[in-house]
Amino acid sequence: MPSPRVAVVGAGPAGIYAADFLTAEHPDVEVDVLERLPAPYGLVRYGVAPDHPRIKGIIKALHRVLSRERVRFLGNVEYGTDLKLADLQRHYDAVIFSTGAMADRALDIPGIDLPGSHGAADFVSWYAGHPDAPSDWPLQAREIAVLGAGNVALDVARMLAKPADEQLVTEIADNVYQGLALNQATDIHVFARRGPAQIKFTPMELRELSHSPEVEVIVHPEGFEIDEASQAAISSNKGVRLVVDTLLRHVEAEPTGASRRIHIHLGPAPVEVLGTDRVEGLRTEITELQGDGTARGTGEYVVTPVQAVYRAVGYLPSEIVDLPYDHVAGLVPNDAGRVVDLDGAAVPGTYVTGWIKRGPVGLIGHTKSDAAETVESLLADLESSPAGRQDEESGRDALIAHLAEGGVDVTTWDGWEALDAHELALGEAAGRERIKVVPREEMLRIARSR
Predict the structure, then answer these.
(1) Which of 147, 221, 259, 299 places its Cα 20 to 30 Å from the Cα of 358?
(2) Pairing state of beta strands 295-305 and 187-192?
(3) What is the Cα–Cα distance from 407 to 83, expressed in whole angstroms?
(4) In the chain, which stretches have pLDDT less than 50?
(5) What's the fold here for domain 5-101+317-411?
(6) Dmax (CA) of the chain
(7) What is the pLDDT of residues 150-195, one digit of tens each?
(8) Domain locations in the chain?
(9) Element (H or E) spanning 91, and its range?
(10) Of 18, 100, 105, which Cα lies nearest the Cα of 66?
(11) What CA–CA distance (Å, rounded) separates 98 from 96?
């Protein structure tokens, strides 16, 4: 019997963890990790703010997996365009989709489509140096609203408030630094529609808001409400307690006189983005807690003058060609990682892991348990009723030959290591750890050099 061959579509943490478990649990399996970008690591490289080196440390562990002999990285390969499911089924015994979520979840309020209103995911892609993001970003607004109560909202607020020169110790791309250097923002308003015990900030993210001496964090006392459900959450969860304590310290703090300010508003729910030709303000409705962790509107409205709005209300996975999709939950229907059709029947040899499996919730670490469950299902299926690839005789390079015939410029692991070394050299010359290369064609040119 030939060695089982598995394709993993998506080279973010979820896909790489799947490759890790596959090669650890099966002595012969060969894994190809396919990625539409020339570089691996997904949201760790393109969804994390450049001033988060601790989170980016996870790349070292992901690198070890991708450098294994039985794991192969194939970058610049876009599923649905360069390959379809039938192509993968010809060359692999099973396929795992780990395509994640990069699109912004919609917010259905009047005015949300006005010029000056942005999705947080688009802004994150820009400042993280994503090759498909625009090369520049409009940063003329002085007063900005950020809608959301999670870590992405805090990242957006911090990147908008922090002086560009403070980012020069990071891997920030040159075009992003130049854009941030022109940033006019002085006041960033973060709106969370519930109380301090219900917001989803992690303690570390919240503390990092005040690390810059040029940024003052102001938590407005209005809406700082602790009801019975809030007190129970504070008493039972250390993370919630730390967040509430940090917020309270900001409520009680004396003004610092810093030139830039991040305002955190607890309780207002956005109901309308105001403006005629572009964003001019945000109308919010004051809410009150109901004692069970939910909040309801009070009918009292407040208008905040802003010239830009960023919605950070969640990510949304995109549909995958040839796979069923649950539009309400925003995921591919599955049973323990096995893809199931609309009638609940398993689609042979087809699996999902990560956000496309369970929806865009949870932190990077949660994808490990996702991957473990999916790989357990896959290996059990291979043992009990192996589907078998349609082209049993094809060698491991047959897929690369197929892609080359279609004109696809595949990035190999050697190519990525050349690009990685190039970015590190750029950083060393500037006294930094790394400077990220952004244009796709430049990434491919450097990758071809090896």
Answers:
(1) 147
(2) unpaired
(3) 12
(4) none
(5) Rossmann fold (3.40.50)
(6) 73
(7) 999 999 999 999 999 999 999 999 999 999 999 999 999 999 999 9
(8) 5-101+317-411, 103-311
(9) helix 85-91
(10) 18
(11) 6
Report the alpha-carbon distance of residue 110 to residue 78 in Å, rounded.
35
* Spatial distance between the Cα atoms of 32 and 11, rounded to a whole number of angstroms: 10
Contact 285, 269 (CB under 8 A): yes
Measure the CA–CA gap between 198 and 225, rounded to whole angstroms.
Answer: 10
Please say whether the beta carbons of 182 and 139 come within 8 A: yes
CA–CA separation, 348 vs 325, rounded Å? 16
Element (H, E) at 70: none
Q: Where are the alpha helices (DSSP H) in 92-209?
A: 120-127, 151-161, 174-181, 203-208
C-alpha–C-alpha distance, residues 94 and 384, integer Å: 14
Whole-number pLDDT of residue 246: 96
Can you name the residues that pair with 104 across neighbouring β-strands? 315
Query: How far apart, in whole angstroms, are the C-alpha atoms of residue 41 and residue 43?
Result: 6
With beta carbons less than 8 A apart as the criterion, state whether 218 and 263 touch.
yes
The pLDDT, as a whole number, for residue 361 is 78
Q: Does domain 103-311 have CATH number 3.50.50.60?
A: yes
